[in-house]
């Protein structure tokens, strides 16, 4: 199914997103290379603060890695010629949705079903 989506513009946006995500992931990993390791002795009261910082960093890394996967998958769909088609029903993903979320893989109804199933 052919789409009217400008794949060149989408590719450019997705590649920029990927670059930004890779940079953010590298920075976050650099700030927290090993959350269990300590370079200096800590006061016991600081342990809770450091643990929560490490937990936040880990949660951020997980979210960024998930988003990175969706961006890479969208770039693969562009290469395969299926960008703009819902991965579930093969109907067109609305152009406005792709403008807002260039990594969107599903049309709105299929995304809603997917989100419900993930809960």
Describe it for me?
By secondary structure, the protein is mainly alpha-helical. It is built from four helices and no strands. It has helices spanning 7-31, 44-80, 95-100, 108-118. It is flat and about 60 Å long. The two termini are 31 Å apart.
A few lines on this structure:
Helices cover 66% and strands 0% of the residues. It contains four helices and no strands. It has helices at 7-31, 44-80, 95-100, 108-118.
Low-confidence stretches: none
Distance between the termini: 31 Å
Mean pLDDT: 87
Range of strand content: under 5%
Radius of gyration: 19 Å
Count of DSSP E strands?
Answer: 0
User: Could you give the order of the helices and strands?
Assistant: HHHH
Morphology: flat
Please give the share of residues in helix: 55-70%
Give the biggest beta sheet: none
Helix/strand-derived category reads mainly alpha
Number of helices: 4
Task: From the structure above, extract its key features.
119 residues; mainly alpha; 4 helices; 0% strand
Layout: helices, strands, pairs:
Elements: H1 7-31, H2 44-80, H3 95-100, H4 108-118
Helix pairs in contact: 1-2
